[in-house]
Amino acid sequence: MYIILILLSNRTVMRQLFSVVLWLTVLQICAQSDVEKISNTISQSDIMAHISFLASDALQGRETGSQGLESAAAYIMSTFLRVGVDTMVGYGDFLQLVPFNEVSPPDSAIIRIGEQVLSLPNDVLIMNGMAQRSTMPTMYVDHGQAEDIADKDLRFKIAVSNIGDGVNQDVYGILEESRAKRQRFIDAGAMGLIEIYQNVRTPWRFVKRLGQSKSLSTKPVGDKRTEQFPHLWISTTDSIAVISLIAETTPVRIEMEGLTKAPLPSDNVIGVVPGTDADLKDEYIIYSAHYDHVGIGPANAEGDTIYNGARDNAVGTSAILALAEYIAQNPMKRSALFVLFTAEEKGLLGSKWFVDNCPVPLDEVKYCFNIDNGGYNDTSIVSVIGLTRTEAEDVMQQACNAFGLEAIEDPAKEQGLFDRSDNVNFAKKGIPALTFSLGFRAFDQNIFKYYHQPGDELETLDMDYIERYVKSFILSAINIGNSEQNYFWKEGDKYYEVGRSLYGH
Ligand SMILES: [Zn+2]
User: Fold this and answer.
1) What CATH homologous superfamily does 37-100+264-503 map to?
2) 424 C-alpha to center of ligand 1: Å?
3) Most buried among 84, 430, 480, 485, by the most CB within 10 A?
4) From ligand 1's centre to the CA of 293, what distance in Å?
């Protein structure tokens, strides 16, 4: 009250105050009209129609490489055509081919080190290599980092290292490090690599299951030495004994069948709506979601074997389709690039291929607004994985508020969700990228009830909430694409510096 009296006593301040109030009102009218425009363009039944097709039993859980996923791609293409989304130059059918190979693990492998005999599937997992039987000298190389092997002669030896780099505990980080390590040892002239799986948060039995299932790779088949190079993970209750045997340069005997590879092509789906602003139309905002899911699997108590993936990620795919329809009718200042990724469930492989083969230069991509969902347990919120990490925080909060929701930052940091969705492949290149997700306060039983389960179906969705969620996504999306400024990483973020170098700041 005191402050207002002082303000009112000063005419200049009053005028300023008046203009601020006027400006706020104008902003509010604009915001209202966007909210109204969204509601007039996109209805709950539009959203539901998308989800009901994508999550239908007919699509068989949309596994990468399946007929079901191809049908989903065809649906996305025909929706793009119907609503007026353009094709990118070079992608005339909206499709970006990803030349996957399906890699099948072998049935048997045995490693002998001294008296120890380790065998597949309990103690050995094959990461790479063709069938072979050989006995070779060994060398222990700690974590196998560049500095660990700088002064070592690894030629004609099998290198034995501890898993990972000694710092990163995340299983995907370890997988990535393992691939990099393999290349490091191939380059160093080693004859093979054995990694001892220990001191890692993810239990061996989980990793073992991964190793026994088929996987996808985009590595070209061809380089004979790379194909042959034996790379194995081992788990032993007595790793100290193994390491001391190797310190005595005890040779190792490997008897293994090889990995088999077969082509399994799949597609990312890409569409564009060019921007309208003469200066800003060469800048792109990527709006993305993965459209694949995990396919058919073990039956649940009701005998259902189809993992429909309504939440994960028919909802996100439908949000992109609804957004595309809205933007096609109401183009933004910046160009909108819509990307639906394949093979997210196989390890973020479609988005990885996309960032490595992006149809536009990466520094023209100013933001990646991804949407992906595990499930929800609170219909009053939206969980934005990375909300507080970019300057778009307020924009997203306001957009959610406009539809009666509150945006919160990732509440389950222990799950490492930021690094487990497609946004991370953009982040690694420096592009501000985060993931919009259905509201959850914790990754608890209510989430696991549907997460990667046959029961993740349309019928179990609260469609009033899904509607408000999708509309919050649309409003956030267009506010990013129409903004005066680009929203960058907040200072101090893990990706701040790589972002600065990408854009030449
Ligand atoms: Zn998933």
Assistant:
1) Zn peptidases (3.40.630.10)
2) 15
3) 480
4) 6
Coil vs helix vs strand at 325: helix
- Separation of 106 CA from ligand 1 center, angstroms? 26
pLDDT tens digit sequence for 358-404 = 999 999 999 999 999 999 999 999 999 999 999 999 999 999 999 99
CA of 316 to the centre of ligand 1 (A): 11
Task: Give the Å distance between the CA of 345 and the centre of ligand 1.
Answer: 6
| pLDDT value of residue 380 | 97
The pLDDT assigned to 5 comes to: 35
CB 401 within 8 Å of CB 393: no
In the chain, where the domains are located: 37-100+264-503, 103-260
Which residues have their alpha-adjacent CB atom under 5 A from ion ligand 1?
Answer: 312
Domains 37-100+264-503 and 103-260 share a fold: no
pTM attached to this predicted model: 0.82
Among residues 483, 476, 485, 478, the alpha carbon closest in space to that of 331 is found at 478
Where are the strands (E) in 22-143, listed by range?
95-98, 101-104, 109-113, 116-119, 124-128, 132-136, 138-140
Calculate how far, in angstroms, residue 4's C-alpha sits from the geometric centre of ligand 1: 54
Residues of the chain predicted below pLDDT 70: 1-32, 219-222
**CATH no. for 103-260:** 3.50.30.30
Residue 151 in 3-state DSSP?
coil
